[in-house]
Amino acid sequence: MAKKYVYFFGAGAAEGNMRMKDVLGGKGANLAEMAGIGLPVPPGFTISTEVCALYYKNRERIPESVRLEVEKNLKRLEKTVGQAFGDPKSPLLVSVRSGARASMPGMMDTILNLGLNDRTAAALVVKTGNERFVYDSYRRFVQMYGDVVLGLKPVHKDDIDPFEAIIERKKHELGITIDTDLSAADLKDLVARFKAAIRAKTGGEFPDDPKKQLWGAIGAVFGSWMNDRAIAYRKLYDIPEAWGTAVNVQLMVFGNMGGDSGTGVAFTRDAATGENVFYGEYLMNAQGEDVVAGTRTPKPISELRKDDAKACVQLEKIRHTLEKHYTDMMDIEFTIQQGKLYMLQCRVGKRTAFAAIKIAVDMVGEKLISEKEALTRVEPDQLNQLLRPIFDQAQKEAAIKGGRLLAKGLNAGPGAATGRVVFNSVDAEAWGKRGEKVILTRIETSPEDIKGMSAAEGILTARGGMTSHAALVARQMGRVCVAGCGELLIDYAAHTMTVKSRTLKEGDWISIDGTTGQVIEGKVNTKPSEVLQVLIEKTLAAGKAPVYQTFAKVMAWADKFRTLKIRTNADQPDQSKNAVAFGAEGIGLCRTEHMFFGEGKIGPMREMILADTLEQRRAALAKLLPLQRKDFAGIFEVMAGLPVTIRTIDPPLHEFLPHEEKEQREVAAQMGIPYEKVRERVDSLHEFNPMLGFRGCRLGIIYPEITEMQARAIFEAAAATKKKKIPVLPEVMIPLVGHVKELADQEKIVRATAEAVMKEQGVKFNYLVGTMIEIPRGAVTADEIAAVAEFFSFGTNDLTQMTLGVSRDDAARFLIPYVEREIYAKDPFEVIDRDGVGQLMRMAVERGRKTRPGIKLGICGEHGGDPSSVEFCHLIGLNYVSCSPFRVPIARLAAARAAILNAPKPEAAKPAKKAAPKGKKPVRKR
Ligand code: PEP
Ligand code: MG
Question: I want to staple 880 with a disulfide (CB 3.0 to 4.6 A). Which of 521, 533, 565, 609 is the partner?
């Protein structure tokens, strides 16, 4: 049987379903699903995403076999609805929309009212008796088609749409200001003017034949998969180009047919707070674009009862049906055409982190989903939003009392942001790159603005509702957003914004509160989030912190399902304390060299480096010993028996010496030695490749007294802690080992020191000696190294540097373009390069465990806090990941999700009677 590329839906049945997102795209799959469960969906058909690839392979043409299938489905649609393309009595009008597997709001093109020409318009006037409506639809169609298919859309951000210019001219001629004052005859004239503009620009006529229109529109929608916006969006959200978009062709229904018609968008729960309330907006006598474009301010859905009670009741029922069916919060679009309700779209709703967590927790309580399912509903990185700052309340109140409250808009994206005003995305990006905090301030945003929105601390718009582009995208990105702040008068050309007779210029400071919608002039300091106030500052009681409570519940569930332990990278007692409060179960990396920069330590450290003889070096080390011991004791006390991995000195020695003459002279004076001596020493320590030079265990091998001092400091601190009856578990880690003999050399010193200290102090304590695996040779010979090492910790920063041959300190210049060109899909210093570095890790795990089955395995490179890398660590069977304190909650959740999503599948169920479409992998629900 020939491969199927087109799927019909409508009239209570569908050929597809919601599990077919990869074939039908999100929109198509959900339309099919809704039709299948009997919801009122306008009939239509979906051309599969696979055709998108064929389209590009076929030099941007639809293959003939697909054309035939489309024709067949078009006939079926005509028959189903009793209308036909170009029919002089009952003409069929359709919408043609994109729909990729992942939602890409507004990034690709849409054409509405397709099928209109002078004849069908006249027929429709007879049929509806509403001439104004028909010619308004007609002019919208010609405009959209002209922009999207015939290429009249402006390219530059400051250009205006040629059709909008014509409308403005017409209104000027008529002396009117609003579109609704245009009469049917005016609109008819606009259609003629639009067509003339198209002729002038393209040299061709506007296509009157609906079939020709359809093929043009289908081609344009496939073509929009490769437009700049879509490409940028895919990069931002990791959507592979190969997925392609589907095209949905669907019977048009009209929300602008009069007072008994309308259109709206809604969330089955509040997408900002997660509250279990129906949340949305609608407009009577309007088309969908009017609601999202922000040109008319929509009404809250709670008022629909007044406008159309029947539709309101029906919609409430659909809200519950959808939540039960999808077991998730859904985002819906609906249209009421002359009193009849139609569902145009449903998809899993985007939400803030606050909402994601609340909805997940509430739905467990409502028995809609399991705890495991709830964990898969919260993206680990979203937790960042819960940890993000809020305004210092006292300062904010003072600012408001002082008359600095400028305006109030919609609380579209929670959190607090303070920054300098910029008025376009290009500036937001440029200022952001310079390290400036900016608030992107726009009349309204459009998909072109995503890069600027991403670079901004916050987004402020003058127009648009909670479901406007700015609001949706800001929430998805986790940006603070205040939308629809109608009091702002923004002048793009003058780069100013006026509100209540005050004018702010580009670069002025403002503060926006995305939780309350307030816009405040000037800077307002931010302060820790609720979660931080409970856990870190301890200034708020858990019982008074609802956000914290839901966070804590999710964390507790995460801990139940994860198999990876989570540790932290910390070198100070306070950092360690924070990490424990966030749930760290040990320290995975204490970089002792960081301690040398602390109070009073850099002097003896420099003395040690500048020493000429062993005696001098020992004398300097003797000064460092008590200082290090104190640091370690502080950490051991906080960690109270949790494992603490302490790494012996790692960086090249020149990092501890000053490189400027002025500072070198100061050091010389402090130490009472000639300046020349300091300079000579610095020169002699110069290396061409310091990261491949005299560092790591090489230092301890050449100067064993350094390792001995550090081991002594660790063990004496351990003994002192033990004497205070606080349990302690030090793990001494030797860095940069490539050969087992290097480790054996250092291990001997460490163990001898441990024995000596235990004897001297008269206490016994357990400890481990292990190594970092951060040199490719170390990974390859892990079986030999494991004969000595009791644990491995992957130093994936260096392992990435050395495996890729890319300097971690100098890579930005080419690595960013590399990622842009998809040479590496992601920055390999951020996300583990599974195919390269990951393979070495896998090898080291296998070889290490072969020699020492019980070996403890972890990671302490920066990747330990990246969700995708945490998943990889789970997959290769590490025991723990270690990351910075503020990433500990993210790692806990990432580890749980890795365990849940990669759990071995229960034995395959008996094959269903109807096999899934061939060649399709089963897709996860979300
Ligand atoms: C590493 O290389 O991954 C590591 C943790 O060590 P550092 O970053 O200190 O070199
Ligand atoms: Mg390293």
Answer: 565
